[in-house]
Amino acid sequence: MIARSLAALALVIGCMPAAAATPPSDAGAVAVPAAPVPTTADAGRPLSPALRNPALRSPMPGGIFGGYQGDTGLDIAGDHLEVFAVASGTLDYSERGHTLWTRGKDTPLSVRIALDEPIAWGNQRITHMYYTHLSKLEHEQPEGAHVRKHVVAGERIGVSGLGNGVPHLHLGLLLDGEVEQDSWTYILREGDVRKVLGGYKNGERLALISDGTKPRSR
Ligand SMILES: [Zn+2]
Question: What is the CATH number of domain 2-15+47-197?
Answer without folding.
Answer: 2.70.70.10
